[in-house]
Design brief:
This protein is an alpha+beta fold. The chain contains 17 helices and twelve strands.
Length: about 575
């Protein structure tokens, strides 16, 4: 009779130990952690995108009645937010909520018309609102001053005639386009021609002071003063002509007026020069809404800020951020690469070198605000003040480089990110096989030729990695920049058509500081809140674009030298 041999069973605890030793749980743990991180990042970016760029989508305009201080009034606006709260809290806030309600909903209406009512965002309890209507002829005006206007167009005083009725809306659009063109002409004259004349007059004033500092006298002084007087007279004549041209354009800009009516029947007169765009949100189809959305985003990215940064665009902040990061990259890359080459290739290994490396690693962990204080004291006051005393004494006591500006902000960020570039470059140099160096030397190349023609090109991708990390950190810094060159509102861009074209001494705007200013120092919190999200998303996308550009360059260098090695 045949017998079967039973397979020995493995105890459960031993199976668990074998499973743990295999490493599978840690693989699943790492995968789960990575998935959670990706979900959080995507969720954060989605929240910022929806709350930021969703602000530019044309909202429906709602007309209803509201109980305000015991009186019924008609309101017109768009819903900016809504929330459901315990009725007790809303009663404590002064809202008339029925006693039988436990929960109550309230709506934040953007009513605009700040010049008429004094405030443009108001909370209303749902129980205080009447029936909602969506009038097709309701208009929204984006203005350069006093925020948005919500109401109805009554008449248009345009080119000496009054337009009403069916032709009013189409004529209004043409008139606004014309007014915007005239406004751009005024801005171009003021910032271009008049700015050039003011720069010339300031240059003559400084020449006069330079003559006084140099002690020029006699015939030489008289000849120089006569020449400056002739130049000043020519500039004054040009200013009179250009000012007359500006006044003519400004007169045309201020001539036309829109007569509008608010929801409660009050008529107001709005100069077309104060209107950026007009829309009938409730009458727009899908195509019209998409066009309106694109137009507003374009204006946000390319326009200049208005109303204490709570309205308008962020182009100066984008331009300042990109310019500062580019200058920082030009400054930090050669210094970081040369320092890493010296530490890895030439410095004698010993306790001194170990101390230097420890110092570099510790420098990477110093709080950024400390770099800002150092930049203010050393770069701005010491170096900048010395430059002013040596090269710009005629401008004193008004400082030129002895005040925070673009160059000092870039230099401070270069010092802040220098350890990152040094460490990445050193690691890249250390990964180059010793056989490659010895092969180059065996073929007759000197150490210098081996270094710069073999080792450094092969470690270029590591250098670019350090630059990528430096750019990512520098573009998001705020604290040190507040001390060394970034301001709330810069009157002009650091690059223009006036010599020397790139003005390193000027102050700049920055997206990070713009977010801080709009989010925490805005006089109109409700109007500024969507701009905080939109600016934050713009900063993230800008950093992504800069990093992708650097990554593309790094990958190209890697493929180039890999092909050469093959």
């Amino acid at each position: 009779m045949a017998t079967t041999e039973a397979t020995p069973s493995i105890p459960q605890n031993q199976t668990t130990r074998l499973w743990l030793k295999s490493g599978d749980p840690w693989i699943w743990l790492i995968g789960g952690g990575l998935s959670i991180s990706l979900i959080m990042v995507v969720g954060l970016l989605t929240l910022i995108a929806v709350r930021g760029f969703g602000h530019f989508w044309p909202s429906e305009l709602i007309e209803t009645t509201a109980n305000v201080n015991g009186q019924t009034t008609t309101i017109l606006g768009a819903i900016a937010d809504s929330e459901t709260l315990p009725a007790v809290r809303m009663r404590e806030a002064g809202m008339a909520i029925p006693e039988d309600q436990v929960l109550a909903t309230r709506y934040l209406f953007e009513l605009g018309n700040r010049d008429v009512t004094g405030r443009d965002f108001v909370w209303f309890a749902e129980s205080d609102l009447g029936a909602w209507r969506y009038p097709v002829d309701a208009i929204m005006l984006e203005r350069r001053e006093w925020g948005n206007f919500f109401g109805y167009a009554v008449a248009l005083e345009y080119e000496g005639r009054t337009v009403e009725g069916e032709a009013l809306w189409q004529t209004l659009q043409l008139a606004i386009d014309r007014a915007n063109d005239l406004y751009d002409q005024v801005q171009a004259i003021e910032k271009g021609e008049i700015g050039r004349i003011n720069t010339g007059l300031e240059r003559l004033r400084l020449q006069q002071r330079r003559l006084e500092f140099d002690g020029v006298s006699g015939a030489a002084l008289a000849e120089a003063e006569a020449d400056m007087a002739a130049q000043r007279a020519e500039l004054d004549a040009q200013f009179i002509d250009i000012q007359g041209e500006r006044n003519q354009v400004l007169e045309q800009l201020q001539r036309d007026t829109l007569v509008a009516r608010t929801a409660d029947g009050e008529q107001v007169r709005i100069p077309l020069g104060n209107i950026v765009m007009a829309s009938q949100n409730n009458a727009l189809g899908l195509g019209g809404k998409i066009g309106f959305y694109v137009q507003r985003i374009h204006g946000f990215l390319t326009g200049f800020p208005r109303e204490a940064n709570t309205e308008g665009g962020i182009f100066p902040a984008i331009f300042g951020t990109v310019t500062m990061v580019l200058i920082m990259s030009v400054l930090v890359t050669p210094f970081g690469v040369l320092a890493a080459i010296y530490l890895r290739e030439y410095a004698k290994q010993g306790p001194v070198l170990k101390a230097i490396r420890v110092s570099v690693y510790n420098l990477a962990g110093v709080p950024s605000i400390v770099f800002g204080v150092f930049g203010l004291g050393f770069f701005v006051y010491l170096l900048g003040g010395s430059i002013d005393n040596l090269f710009f004494p005629e401008r004193l006591p008004a400082p030129t480089f002895g005040t925070p500006g673009l160059f000092w902000a870039s230099l401070t960020l270069a010092l802040l990110t220098l350890p990152v570039v040094i460490v990445s470059t050193e690691e890249g140099l250390a990964r180059i096989p010793r056989t490659i160096r010895e092969g180059s030397l065996a073929l007759g190349a000197t150490k210098w030729e081996t270094l710069w023609k073999v080792v450094v090109p092969l470690s270029a991708p590591a250098m670019m990695t350090g630059l990528i990390l430096a750019v990512a950190r520098a573009a998001g810094e705020v604290a040190p920049l507040m001390l060394v060159g970034v301001v709330k509102l810069a009157p002009s861009l650091p690059i223009d058509g006036e010599f020397p074209y790139v003005h390193l001494e000027r102050k700049i705007m920055h997206l990070g500081f713009h977010i801080y200013d709009v989010g925490f120092q805005s006089p109109n919190v409700e109007a500024a809140r969507p701009l905080v999200y939109a600016t934050a998303l713009t900063l993230v996308l800008l950093i992504l674009i800069l990093n992708l550009t650097a990554i593309a360059i790094r990958n190209r260098l890697r493929e180039k030298y890999r092909a050469q090695g093959d």
